[in-house]
Design a protein that fits this description.
Subcellular location: Membrane
InterPro entries: Transmembrane_161A/B (IPR019395)
Distance between the termini: 67 Å
Pfam families: Tmemb_161AB
Family: Belongs to the TMEM161 family.
Keywords: Glycoprotein, Membrane, Transmembrane, Transmembrane helix
Mean pLDDT: 80
Structural class: mainly alpha
């Protein structure tokens, strides 16, 4: 039996450490989140277009909080009111680093963004490094670093998304109440899945390794995740609704662009498709159960005429889960642009709603969407980050945590690393796909609308 400090273990540990340190130092000198969001179009209302003070410098275009003094009660008058069209102007500018650092929750967005990339690179690198089968110990194949980074990244994302969920002015009170309701409903569904109330042919998961306490904690955690994902799912739905021009407004100001529109289409369709791959009635369409070979050693390498072998299908749906996380990560920029364009649509609707438009609401909406852009970025980034973390942890087969008996007496480590990681990754995709689809259906029926 080789020692924990054999050549393969040392090499893997050194490579993992150097890669993590290099990326951390690189991100400390290069602001990757600012580069990722650079040149997004944001919009501002001018403070004053026709100032009465002759000493004023003219147009003051600044993102400001609408003051209470500007909200004056209207006086009824029989005189005809002439609306000054100059005060209906809206300006567009491109975001840069100086703009972004002044936004609320920018430090949280930057920290989650950078740590997600570092941890995901470490988890991905672990799958390509050579592994020693005979080695044992805590430093087995250098696995300690990707597991540590994966769990820290997972905890960091959950803490940040929970924190922004309690932001008072970031979402409506109704959305917070619906989040609690959604969490409660999905907790009940999770209990039905974990306790295997549904027949075994419905979901392709096994929870035999979990005891009663483990099943209870798993179901509660799944409901907690569903509650956290409600508000991000509503933002995903609005971004998709505007980015793909489902309202048929044909406004060039809110046009997403061909690349961004294709990302929105692909990310949504792949999310729904991947969520169905662990549901057996749908998965059976891709598996050829008629593959029968006398030599069982080569049975997994063959595919049928109308399907694929079970082992090929397992790899296929893992690749789909990975592609879903990556595509949703790449769609963060397009989703944020649609989040900003939502304020422009509100301004346009208010401007043409009547002959004497009241632009105070749109002015406040433009301000809030500029002010909370990094908070929205966290909400768009968190679901794909959770998928990638859960998937990466589920692919670690070294059972490093088995060397901590005190911890493994409380929770089954092998189930936590492998099966539960895969279950949670699929659960995030499923909840996101269901909630976005329900919101899009409500938009299509006219029950919900973007304003």
């Amino acid at each position: 039996m080789s020692s924990p400090f054999s050549s393969t273990n040392n090499l893997n540990l050194i490579i993992q450490t150097l890669c993590s340190l290099f990326l951390t130092l690189l991100f400390s000198f290069i602001n990757i989140p600012s580069l990722f969001l650079h040149a997004l179009h944001t919009y501002i209302h001018p403070d004053d277009v026709t100032p009465t003070n002759p000493n004023s410098s003219g147009i003051k275009a600044a993102i400001r909080r609408p003051s209470d003094t500007s909200l004056k009660p209207r006086k009824k008058s029989t005189d005809k009111f002439e609306f000054d069209e100059n005060k209906a102007q809206i300006f567009r500018l491109k975001l840069n680093h100086n703009h972004l650092v002044s936004r609320l929750y920018y430090d949280h967005f930057r920290g989650v963004f950078n740590f997600t990339i570092v941890a995901c690179c470490s988890l991905l690198l672990h799958n390509f490094l050579p592994k020693s089968i005979d080695s044992t110990g805590v430093l087995h194949n250098g696995t300690l670093i990707p597991i540590l980074l994966g769990f820290l990244g997972l905890c960091r994302v959950l803490i940040v998304i929970t924190k922004v969920s309690f932001e008072r002015s970031a979402s409506k009170l109704l959305d917070k109440q619906l989040s609690v309701l959604i969490g409660f409903l999905f907790t009940i569904i999770a209990f039905l899945i974990v306790l295997e109330v549904f027949p075994n042919w419905v979901f392709d998961f096994r929870f035999d390794l979990l005891d009663g306490y483990g099943k209870f904690c798993t179901a509660v955690f799944m409901g907690f995740l569903a509650g956290l994902l409600y508000v991000p799912a509503t933002k995903f739905a609005r971004a998709y609704w505007l980015g793909t021009d489902q309202i048929r407004c044909n406004l060039s100001m809110i046009y997403c662009g061909l690349f961004g529109r294709m990302l929105l289409y692909l990310s949504y369709l792949l999310t729904v498709f991947t969520s169905l791959l662990w549901i057996n009635p749908f998965a059976d369409l891709f598996i050829n159960k008629n593959i029968k070979m006398k030599n069982a050693r080569h049975a997994d390498r063959l595919t049928g005429n109308v399907g694929m072998s079970r082992s090929d299908f397992e790899v296929f749906r893992l690749c789909c889960l990975l592609a879903t996380g990556v595509l949703n990560m790449l769609s963060v920029r397009a989703n944020l642009q649609m989040f900003l364009n939502e304020a422009v649509l509100s301004w346009y609707q208010r401007l043409h709603a009547s002959k004497v438009p009241d632009l105070d609401y749109s002015r406040a909406k433009v301000f809030l969407h500029n002010h909370y852009i990094c908070l929205a970025g966290i909400q768009f980034l968190s679901p794909p980050a959770l998928v990638l973390f859960f998937l990466g942890l589920s692919r670690i087969n070294d059972n490093v945590l088995d060397h901590f008996p005190a911890l493994c007496n409380l929770i089954p480590c092998s189930a936590l690393i492998k099966e539960m990681g895969l279950v949670m990754g699929w659960w995030v995709v499923l909840v996101l796909g269901v909630l976005v689809s329900v919101n899009l259906a409500l938009y299509r029926q006219g029950i919900l609308y973007v304003s």
